[in-house]
Structures are given as C-alpha cells and as structure tokens.
Amino acid sequence: MRDGIGKRAASALFLCGVLVMLAVSSAIVSSAMYILSFPGQASGITKEQVTKHMKKESFKQADIYYTSKEKSLLPLTKETLEYAVSINQIMIGYSNQKPIDIIFFPNEKQMEAYSGLLDVVGFYSEREQLIGLLPEEKKKLLEGDEVAVYLYQRLLIHEYSHHAFHQKLKELETDPDEFPLWFHEGLSEWIANYELLIDPITFSVVPFDRLQTDRDWQEARAEYDTDVYLQSFYMIDELTDKYGKDIISEMIKETAKKGDFEKGFKSATKESLDQFEKDFKKKFEKNSAALDSIYPMPLLLVKSLLTHSAIPPCVGVICPWAGANEFRSCSISCASS
What we know:
Strand order of the largest sheet: 3-1-7-8-6-5-4
Number of strands: 11
CATH class: Mainly Alpha
Largest sheet: 7 strands, mixed
Structural class: alpha+beta
Distance between the termini: 41 Å
CATH topology: Neutral Protease, domain 2
Number of domains: 1
Number of helices: 11
Order of helices and strands: EEEHEEHEHEEHHHHHHHHEEE
Shape: globular
Strand content: 15-25%
CATH superfamily: Neutral Protease Domain 2
Helix content: 40-55%
C-alpha cells in the first residue's frame, strides 16, 4: 500500500505586521491530495533504476538517496527526520526505528512511473519501506524560503508518520485496514502539523462512512466541496482536544485488542463513533453559522511551524487551501514566545 501526498502551493511572505496577498494558481495545483494505492499500478521501474546515478548517505535508520541538486537539503532533511522520529515516539509510541529509504525523485514523470500515483509530491510505500520525495518550489526551498521549508518539513513528517504508524501496528499484530482511511490520513496530518493552531474554518462535514477506503476517499473528493484531508485533521484534533493526546495511543491499542475500530474507539473514549460524528457535525455546523458572518474566508493561524525550523515566532494567517486562481487577504502579526 502506498500513500502519496499531493502538490500544494502557497506563495506568501512571512513578515510580521503586514498584509499578504496569497495567490494559488491552478497551474501549480491548489489543494492537498493524498492517495492510497496498491503496488503494481506503476510501470515497473525499480528502486535500483531510480537510484543508479544517485549518491547515498546513511543517517541513523535512514538511507537517503540524492543528487548534487539536493545535497544542500540533507541537513534540513536529517533535522526534520529526527523531529519526525521523536514526535512519533511521543504520539503513537513507536521507537524501534526500522530502516527506511528516502529517495529524492528528479522529476514528476519518474515519481509517477515508480509509484503509480499522479500529481503527488511524496508517497510512502509500506511494502518497500520507502519514502519518495519531490519537494515543491525546490529553488525557493534551497534558498531557505520559509513557506517552502514549512511545506517540505510537513511533507516529510507526514510520510514518516505513515511509516511509524504501520510499524506500530505490526508490533501490535494489527491489520492497518482495521483503521479507516480518515484515521490514517488525519493522524499523519495532525502529527505533521502538531505545532500549528488551525482556527477558524468552515466546511460541510462529509459523513464518516464516506471516508473509510481509498475508493470512498476519491468519490468524496469529487462529490463534496469539503477538503477531506483537512476534515480528517480536524477529526483527530477534536479527539485530542476532548480526551488529550494520549487518546491516540489508547485508540490504537484498543482497536488492536478488539480487532474492530468502532469497538476500539468506544473502549478508548467511552462514547460511540456515531455519537462522536453527531457531535463533530453539530460543532462545525454551529461554528460555520457563527463564522460565516464574521470571516469571509478560512484562516490558518500559524502558531509556530516547527520548533527546530528557522521560521520566526510569529502568529501568521495564511490560506493554503484557497481555490485555483483565487486571492486571499492574509495578515501576520508577531507574538511573544
């Protein structure tokens, strides 16, 4: 099974106390997209073919394959990987650090040929224990642009979190398919954005049973205006707000014991999944009604990006899920540490 994180675009200037106009072009691709697919959809290109002319650098549990173009990204990659390992130890209790390969793909065509996934900038292959990366805005990333750095760190942490979650389930002898897709994606997004405060946002809640499998996921993306990835993040965020971050480990353990996600959910939270869905929908519909009269657009309040990043301690407002060719007015202000 492979997970891919889709192309994003966010052109914003992180300056304290200024008004920022954010433009998202359909040519660059507007919103996030994650895809789960089975190996075998690709053209047959092998890892050896992809990495034949690449250099390899080993860092703790990871072998990183890169070219001279990505060499300057290695320090940031190592630093981000260390953070990803640490945060997953805390959040899901995975600490064995099974070896994994990280490959910087040279272009979109080769990544698609290898993974079988379209329009993605990253993927995780459980079968091959491999993370594939095709960083967005590579030129800006190499220049240290703060938005590009954030997107890259988020990408790597997201994909590593999929790896850590799968390995934790192996330790518990639990099938990953016992967990709905919204939990897989929501958990990875929540961990990748752990240092962020996202509020407020309005959306129409997609029924939970429409977010179970990859097929459900793709159909929901086509039928609903809602960003299902963002909703999944909020579902995990709501659980941790209500029960504390330890609820994640409890739900994983209880689902492993019961062999059923709904039973594991109820055992860990003492409420049914159906009730949680009703409360979740009621809360966001209520919030939507209140916010629609106040905010003309969704806002992303950047509390801090990553404690180890070079981004200053400011509270920013950006709108990375703005639609194609839309412009969003965003303000940024400094906050005390």
